[in-house]
Write a structure and sequence with these properties.
Layout (H helix, E strand, L loop, with lengths): L2 H6 L2 H21 L1 E5 L2 H6 L6 E3 L19 E4 L3 H11 L4 E4 L7 H17 L4 E3 L15 H8 L3 E8 L2 E3 L7 E3 L4 E6 L11 H16 L3
Parallel strand pairs: 1-9, 2-5, 2-6, 3-4, 3-5
Antiparallel strand pairs: 6-9, 7-8
Helix pairs in contact: 2-4
């Protein structure tokens, strides 16, 4: 591996980058006028209860600001470097980590460890955060095992998203929305999806994402 790639994937560099990103998120968060739609779902209805929190990879940047104070979500971390960067950034907002399988060797063992950690999170009544289209897409398509996880753990899924009047759309596979400061933004908290209806997740996530984009046009 070339030296530059080794540096970019190093723990030290990822930690430094995560600190910068977290500082930027905080700056955007406090300089943006936010409107929260359906906020009672997490503020009241699901407070103190375990659930699965989902958001598209392209809308993850401002997710730390959608949760009320006191929530400690546990992020299911992919072995990819961008997944580690996301986790390290969210950890600076008090999120926990659940490590996914890191490779083909010991895959079963790694998967069982992640399942045990998710069960413990459920027992602590803490949410589990998952990006269903991460880490490599396709964008806005539910992949991975989120549906199976919801059914296995018997947990409802709460999809969340955001949009803002001031942003840049990155030229990445997920069309990452990079919110800019001094704008107006919308968070939408979706209604809980019971585990037996988890197959509806993709349609519900896309519906609230499109709704958020329409909503900021009227702010």
């Amino acid at each position: 591996m070339k030296l530059s790639k080794r540096i970019l994937k190093s723990r030290a560099f990822i930690g430094f980058a995560a600190s910068l990103i977290a500082a930027y998120i905080r700056f955007v968060g406090i300089t943006t006028r936010w409107k929260v739609i359906n906020g009672d779902v997490m503020e009241k209805d699901m407070r103190g209860k375990p659930f699965i929190l989902t958001f598209w990879h392209g809308r993850l940047l401002m997710i730390p600001y959608c949760a009320p104070r006191g929530y400690r979500a546990n992020v299911l971390n992919s072995p990819h470097s961008d997944g580690e960067l996301m986790v390290q950034t969210l950890k600076r907002f008090g999120f926990g980590t659940i490590r996914a399988t890191s490779g083909s060797k010991g895959k079963s063992k790694g998967g069982m460890k992640a399942i045990k950690e998710m069960i413990r999170a459920k027992q602590r009544k803490e949410p589990i955060a998952i990006t269903p289209d991460g880490p490599k897409g396709p964008a806005r398509k539910v992949g991975g095992n989120v549906v199976e996880i919801a059914k296995m753990l018997d947990l409802p899924i709460i999809p969340v998203t955001f949009s803002t009047t001031r942003c840049k759309i990155a030229r990445t596979w997920d069309s990452l929305i990079i919110a800019k400061p001094f704008g107006r933004g919308v968070f939408i908290i979706g209604d809980p999806i019971p585990p037996e209806r988890a197959d509806e997740l993709e349609a519900r996530m896309n519906a609230i994402t499109d709704e958020a984009d329409r909503a900021v046009e009227t702010l």
